[in-house]
Amino acid sequence: MTYHEKKELAVSIIQKEFAKRNIFIKEIVFFGDQNEYNPQPDSHWDFLISIENEIASLKKTEIINTIQNKLSEDSISADIFVKSESSLVQI
User: Fold this and answer.
1) Percent of the chain having pLDDT more than 70?
2) What CATH code is carried by the domain that includes residue 78?
3) Structural domains counted in the chain
4) Domain residues for 60?
């Protein structure tokens, strides 16, 4: 699987897991080693998911774990951060 195919798959999995729970994603930000020009094959992926409204910590953990498990099935190691729009500070 190519770099772009992996990225598309990851975004698709993230979108589906939030949609299943009727949680609206405002933005998915991709950052870290894999976002650089020359990522290493063993580098993990980092995603910040901005959602419209805050959700309970337990629910957030459940979603993150589900996404990470699905990504690992395709050999994608990822850190997932979920923040409500109001908790993100504009710089």
Assistant:
1) 87
2) 3.30.70.1350
3) 1
4) 3-87
- In the chain, how many H helices and how many E strands? 2, 3
Token pair in block for residue 6: 């992996």
d(CA 7, CA 70): 13
What mean pLDDT is reported for the chain?
Answer: 89
pLDDT tens track for 4-29: 888 899 999 999 999 999 999 999 99
Instruction: State the Cα–Cα distance between residues 66 and 32, nearest whole angstrom.
Output: 21
Name the residue type at position 5: E
Tokens standing for residue 12:
């698709």
Rounded distance between C-alpha atoms, residue 89 and residue 82, angstroms: 14
